[in-house]
Amino acid sequence: MELDQVPRYQTDAAVKQRQITPEWSHMWQILKLIPKAPLIDIACAEGFCVWMADKAGFTQTLGVEIDEGRVLRGRKFLGDVNLRANNIFDRLSLLKEYRYFIIARFFHNIGDEMSEKLMNEIDKKKNYLLIIKHKAGPRKETGAKREPLATRKGINTFLDRYPLSKKSFCGDLIVAGKGKYSNIPAFLRKHMPEPV
Q1: Alpha-carbon distance 23 to 76, whole Å?
Q2: How far is CA 128 from the centre of its chain?
Q3: What is the Cα–Cα distance from 158 to 152, expressed in whole angstroms?
Q4: Residue 67: how many other CB atoms lie within 10 Å
Q5: Which regions in the chain score pLDDT beneath 70?
Q6: Domains of the chain
Q7: What 3-state DSSP class applies to 187?
Q8: Which residue of 31, 41, 43, 193 is 20 to 30 Å from 89, comparing CA positions?
Q9: What digits encode the pLDDT tens for the residues 45-93?
Q10: In which element (H, E) is residue 176 found?
């Protein structure tokens, strides 16, 4: 299997050079600021967010990615990151072990029905935190309109179905908490600038 493929979501500078690029700097700030808890990155690609979480002091992390090539590439360049090549929908039981969920540019790939299935499983928990990275802007580079679940507005509307406290942040991020984590979005807002 080819390990040197061009990444779809995580740049060579981030993965190969282990560099926190401007694209990921706000995610890095969030990971450093929030209290540490078990964290899973769903559809993690090469696992760069897992690597950042490890560097930020998280001790229980996991990245799940359906593309085994991405997982192998992540292990090759990022070292000892806890990644699994699985379809999350075949392993929903994994979610029980975690309190924090990173979902980066994934909802629009799976559509509303599967996004709802994933969120319904997560929402069974009394306490959890979502860190969601969406696409920048309402339009693609081609000028075509983005799918709703690829945008801040679309994801916020989707999350309105759940009892969450949420805030948007620079870096195309949304942080949403439930239960004992519902105060984290407001806590982060005190330390991070408003989105532009």
Answers
A1: 22
A2: 13
A3: 10
A4: 15
A5: 1-11, 193-196
A6: 12-188 (3.40.50.150)
A7: helix
A8: 31
A9: 999 999 999 999 999 999 999 999 999 999 999 999 999 999 999 999 9
A10: strand 173-178
